[in-house]
Amino acid sequence: MPEPTPHDPERSADAAANAGADVRAVMRAEAENEVEGDAGWTFDVTLYRLERPGVPEQRLASTILRLSWQDYERWCSGTLPPSSVAEQVVRCAAARLGVDAIPPTVDASTLHRRTPELDDDLAACL
Q: Is 37 within a domain?
């Protein structure tokens, strides 16, 4: 049976992540509860499977993400809201590592170390 394309609505988020496909086609991230601290921000980030006609959106995973000033500057040079960067970090890391590999609490720099392609992925979507 042929491999489904990234735009196939039946394709699961895990299959897209394992294939290294563009997870934006099957998943969205939402950052909430922004808290600014001395070294950066903390967000509650939730990943959702995108809605298909007749199918309600499905919550896939949640994490508490810490985003340092340094990581924020590296990825967007201050041009975007920190919440947008947080969403993309979690979404891109989930695409490479799989949804289940995102821990309940994680620092963006940890995801950066575990995902060598993250800089390139973020450059493409930020």
A: yes
